[in-house]
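Hello,

Our lab assistant flagged a job as stuck in the queue for most of the afternoon. It eventually completed. Since we weren't sure the result was trustworthy after the delay, we are filing this so someone can double-check. Below is the sequence as submitted and the structure that was eventually returned. Let us know if re-running is recommended.
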Amino acid sequence: MLAALPALLLFTGLFIGLVTPSTVRPDAFLATAMVSAAALLPLWGTVLIGVGACAVFVGLMVDFDALRDATAYSELASLVAIGAFAVFLNRLLDRRAHQLVQVRSVAETAQLAVLHPVPRHLGHVALESLYLAAAAEARIGGDLYEAMHTPQGVRLLIGDVRGKGLLAIQAAATLLSAFREAAHDAPDLPHLARRLETSINRHASHHPGVPGSEIAERFITALLAEIPDDEPVVRTVTCGHPPPFLLHRGEVRELQPTAPSPPLNLGMLVGEGYHVDVAPFHPGDQLLLYTDGVTETRDRSGAFYPLAERIRSWSGETPHQLLDHLHRDLLGYSAGELDDDIAVLIARRRPEPLSLR
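-- returned structure --
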């Protein structure tokens, strides 16, 4: 739609020049057409609009018998100068856009290196994950997830670092490394949460020179889940993160925490420690963990994405099918313009344990 604006301005200038007296000049419309073309069109389009604007002005000079008018030639020279500037501006904007794409590509590569692929099966649990980057104009975020098979069962982590950019990815990498190390030997989820809190605090203390203590001020919302091998339950610890959804025989239930803890790197606010919530988790049940980018996705009217309502109709699907539905639905709901990164992790208890792969 906006790409048609330069041509519209060009024809408007031509129309005004033809239907108004010779004292009324269409220079402003022609100049605006060239400058807008620099921002909205590729190089060939900018050149075409520039040549067209100059041709329109010369044609009007002929129509009004102004070929001997020095003022008209001065105005034509100004239009030529504006056309040349529009071409320069177009090249400058294109170079800046290319640099932005390169910087974002580096950030996305770093994030994908941090987010290792989640195994499709861990023991008795089938897993699927989804990561969607925000629109190209947005800065990349610190969404993260991980799944590990441990002596205590399958342990899951999903989190979201406050802020954007490479510092957020660095904090996410620190948290993921700590989880991969501590998940195996922490006896329970509160111990695991404290280990993660200690690692994030240490990470912040090692960067005192960052302006404004930006790293020290970055908190991480996180959700820890544990699915034991020998009990039909799921245990969760919530650290300021959106609660997960439990899908059971066509029903969808939000597992609200009884006593939520503050986000990681705010451990000084934890009073009596981390509270563990326990919910039934039988064979065939599914647990959906997500970052707030999902529920904060908006449609064109500004309405938030109704996650619980949407997944209710897909609750009988496999994790892979459910994520496929969710993926396509989110892109359709937002018209492909996501304002924030999105991470989703789904775990389904299988009837019998599987060998690790």
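-- support follow-up --
The delay was a queue issue, not a problem with the job. The result is valid. The mean pLDDT is 86. The radius of gyration is 29 Å.
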